[in-house]
């Protein structure tokens, strides 16, 4: 497959190496110091893989709106309006959008869906994520995705980085740690009376995300328009 790669930072560089090693081709790379826009790519491509910055989204979706090119959106830190625009684009183009391409987090979501209804009446739920000191957005996209899984109907208040005085309410606390070279850790803590259950995922290298994103791109080529996630990519081929 021929790929338009958006973003040439830590993830973009790993994706480039892996695509070439698998025999795929790169039609062009868009980044601050390379091609400025997807419209500058002259060679044809089958799919777009985006690991960049939310500021790129508008131009990417404008391109996809015209060409209906399959797109894998991996960037995090979008506003709710931007997420709505991604969903809208998926009405006319095939889109994989996920904040985390690892198998572990995909399975962790399944586990949370199963156990949260059993525990939530008697256990408090908190989310802790840890990442490297170069990460721009907080909390992580994955933490937000996990909170959506814990709180699909929005019945819990979402409290970011709790501080001050006052008893815990009907809420989910979300806490972001930044430091060193931590690749990505996500914990959901269910704290009950005299017992605590913690479900934790640790990514030990960025390769898990790159492998998942390439799988998602391979999955998307030839698919009809729609919004797909890693459950579709990994389990519903
Ligand atoms: N879904 C998933 O599984 C994963 C998602 N991510 C997400 O992917 C994104 C990229 O991560 P990572 O590679 O680690 O980050 P980096 O900061 O290393 O790379 C970001 C890239 O985007 C470019 N960029 C930044 N701002 C703009 C802009 N306004 N317009 C065009 N290009 C821009 C940067 O260019 P320059 O270097 O010149 O500034 C750089 O090439 C992040 O949002 C991260 O959270 C990361 C890992 C896994
Ligand atoms: O920026 C990162 O590095 C990561 N970002 C994603 C997120 O925001 O959840 C996924 C992963 O944890 C690494």
Automatic annotation (TrEMBL):
Superkingdom, taxonomy of origin: Bacteria
One MF annotation (Gene Ontology) recorded for this entry: oxidoreductase activity, acting on CH or CH2 groups, NAD or NADP as acceptor
GO cellular component: cytosol
Any GO BP: diaminopimelate biosynthetic process
Pathway note: Amino-acid biosynthesis; L-lysine biosynthesis via DAP pathway; (S)-tetrahydrodipicolinate from L-aspartate: step 4/4
Catalytic activity: (S)-2,3,4,5-tetrahydrodipicolinate + NAD(+) + H2O = (2S,4S)-4-hydroxy-2,3,4,5-tetrahydrodipicolinate + NADH + H(+); (S)-2,3,4,5-tetrahydrodipicolinate + NADP(+) + H2O = (2S,4S)-4-hydroxy-2,3,4,5-tetrahydrodipicolinate + NADPH + H(+)
Quaternary assembly: Homotetramer.
PANTHER family xrefs: 4-HYDROXY-TETRAHYDRODIPICOLINATE REDUCTASE, DIHYDRODIPICOLINATE REDUCTASE
Function: Catalyzes the conversion of 4-hydroxy-tetrahydrodipicolinate (HTPA) to tetrahydrodipicolinate.
UniProt name for this protein: 4-hydroxy-tetrahydrodipicolinate reductase
Native species: Breznakia blatticola
